[in-house]
Amino acid sequence: MGCIDLVQLLLSQGADVRAKTLVGTAALHAAVRVGDRTMTEFLLNHKANMNERGEQRDTALHCTARALDNRLTDYRDVAALLLSRGADVNLRNEKRETVLHLAAAWGAADIAELVLGVGGDINGVDNEGSTALHWAARRSEKMNQLGVDHQKKFGIALQLVARGINWNAVNNQGRTARAIAETDLPKGSLLRHFLGGLPQ
Questions:
Q1: Domain hosting residue 173, numbered range
Q2: Lowest mean pLDDT: which of 8-12, 79-83, 108-112, 122-126?
Q3: Beta strands 71-72; 67-68: pairing state
Q4: Where does each ANK repeat begin and end (predicted)?
């Protein structure tokens, strides 16, 4: 018996497609977290709520573009499916991050491109006052451990600037994306050089 057959059996026996674990994960979140488009579509066809909140108040769309279980996600086909079914591209999690913030942070270039193409809030800020460009400029130990592709983050930054993001936006710490790049990125970084060359 395959996974879908098993889920179909459970649903036929009265299981609730919207039931959650103790930490708030619904079946839809679990399917998206592993990039299972077939299961995601099956659950949506059985009335799973694509905007349902899970852990950290993430929606399924958030799960397509973040670091989960010590691995990176960049599930464009799953994100496209969710958006085609009405997922809200600008919903925020408990840190007020949109999927665009997460895509920029973790180098999920395919998701960033998709989200920007459907009206993602380019100048939206999280609870630290950071835009997606601030997140693209960041580098952390966890990002290094997970092998975040900084070339992809550079590509995301190029898209953000080309689409009109305010590159001089200041976060709650009084820092621009340029200032973050100067402390977080090595001197030879293309992204650091690019942000440093933008007019102030």
A1: 3-196
A2: 8-12
A3: antiparallel
A4: 23-55, 56-94, 95-127
CATH number of residue 94's parent domain = 1.25.40.20
Beta strands in the chain (DSSP E): 67-68, 71-72
Tokens of 184: 């977080």
Amino acid at residue number 45: N
Q: State yes or no: pLDDT of 73 exceeds 90.
A: no
b/e map of 34-47 (b: 16 or more CB within 10 Å)? ebbbebbbbbbeee
Q: Which single residue is written with the structure tokens 């100067």? A: 182
Report residue 19: phi and psi, to 5°: -60, 150
The whole-model pTM stands at: 0.91
